C-alpha cells in the first residue's frame, strides 16, 4: 500500500488530537482511502510535555526543517495559530509544493488571499475545514454540496465561548463578568478572552464564509464587529417579553449584488433554529435558492472535534494526491478568475429592527420627548415597555422600545440627540433584532 506522509507543525491540544485520530483510527482511514496516511514528523518547541497520546520514536522534533521543505513530507498541517510564524511556515510549505491543512482562521482572515495564490501557483491544495465551526463540515458543504446553489445569506453562531456566556446569562440572570469567570474556570474561555468576547474570532470566521458564499476575496476589514461585554441581565428579561433570545450572530447577506457583513449581539425570535443553539455549540444557517434554508450544527471547538475536521481535510488531499488530481476543488469553491471584489454596503446603510433600552429620569414627558426625536429621524416605534426600578440611579427607570425596520444611520443620529437630553441617565443600550434570517 502506498504511503502519503504527513508533517504536523504545532503539538498543542489540537495537534495532539490529530495525532490521536491518525494513530488510533488508521485502519478505518486506510480502508476509506486506499493508501496509508503516515504521521512522519511532528515539529514543536516543546516535545517533552505529556499530551496524553503515545507518539512512536523518531517522530517528534524541534527542527521545523524536518517538516517544511522535507521532500519526504507530502502534506503539512499547521496548528500553531496566530499570524506569525504560521504565515511564513505555510508559505514555505506551499512554495516547496507541499499541500497544507490548517485550522487557523486568523491567518486566513488576514493572509488567506495571498496564500491561496501561492497554492495555485505551485499546483498544491490548501484546505481549511477546521478554521470555521470546528468539527462542523461547513466549508466542504459550501464548496461542494451547495455548489449548484445561489447562496443569499449565511448566519451563524461561531464562537462557543460567547454562546456559553449568553446562554448562562439568559438562563440564570447572572452578569457578564461572573459568567466569564465561570467560563474561564471551565476552560471555555482564554485567560485573555478579548478575541472571543469582542467578536473578533467570529469575524475572522465570517470573512471566510462570506467569500465561500459570494465569490469575493476574503476581506476581514469590511466586517462591522461588536462584542457582548455591554449586555446586561435586564436585556434578557426584556428579550423574553418580546419573544426573542440574544445571540452573538455573524451575518452575511447578498441583496441585489450588495454584500453586508456584520458581527454583533442580535435578538432573534425564540422559534428560530439558531435561537435553540445553546452552551458551547456552534451552528451555521444557510439560505440557498435550490435547497432553501439549512442548519449545520455541532461542536465548534475542542480537541477531537477540530481534529476530526483536520483529518477529513487530510483524507481529501490524499485522495487528490493518489489520483494525481490536485486542485480538484478551487480554494474558495469558485474558479479563480470568478473571484471578484465584493460590493459592500456600509454599516450606516443597513436596515434592521432595534431594541432600545433607555435609562431615563422618572419625569413627565420622558416618553414623548424620546419618541419625538425618533420620529424626527424616520424611526417608528413598534412597542414600548416601561417597568421596574432604577438602574443604579434611584430616579432612573428603564424604558424599552422595539422599533420597526429603520436605517442604521438614522438610528445613530437620533441616539446622539437623545443621549444628550437632561432626562437620560446613561447611554442608550442598542441590540439589533433580526426576524428574517
Textual characterization of the structure:
The protein has 437 residues and is of the alpha/beta class. It has three domains: 3-135 and 303-335, Rossmann fold (3-Layer(aba) Sandwich); 138-299, Dihydrodipicolinate Reductase, domain 2; 348-433, ACT domain (Alpha-Beta Plaits). Helix content is 34%, strand content 26%. It has 13 helices and 17 strands. The protein has helices spanning 13-24, 26-33, 86-95, 105-122, 138-145, 160-172, 176-185, 194-197, 200-214, 233-242, 303-322, 366-376, 408-418; strands at residues 3-9, 36-43, 60-61, 75-78, 99-102, 126-127, 151-157, 224-225, 244-255, 258-269, 281-288, 292-299, 351-361, 381-386, 396-403, 406-407, 424-433. Strands 7, 8, 9, 10, 11, 12, 13, 14, 15, 16 and 17 form an eleven-stranded mixed β-sheet that branches. It has a six-stranded parallel β-sheet with strand order 3-2-1-4-5-6, sandwiched between helices. Helix 1 (13-24) packs across helix 11, helix 6 (160-172) crosses helix 7 (176-185) and helix 12 (366-376) packs antiparallel against helix 13.
User: Beta-strand percentage?
Assistant: 25-35%
User: How are helices and strands ordered from N to C?
Assistant: EHHEEEHEHEHEHHHHEHEEEEHEHEEEHE
Number of helices: 13
Contiguous uncertain segments of 5+ residues: 389-393
According to CATH, what is the topology of the largest domain? Answer: Rossmann fold
Mind telling me the CATH class of the largest domain?
Alpha Beta
The residue-averaged pLDDT reads 94
In this structure, how is the largest beta sheet organized? Answer: 11 strands, mixed
Helix vs. strand class: alpha/beta
As for the number of domains, it is 3
User: Any guess at the CATH architecture of the largest domain?
Assistant: 3-Layer(aba) Sandwich
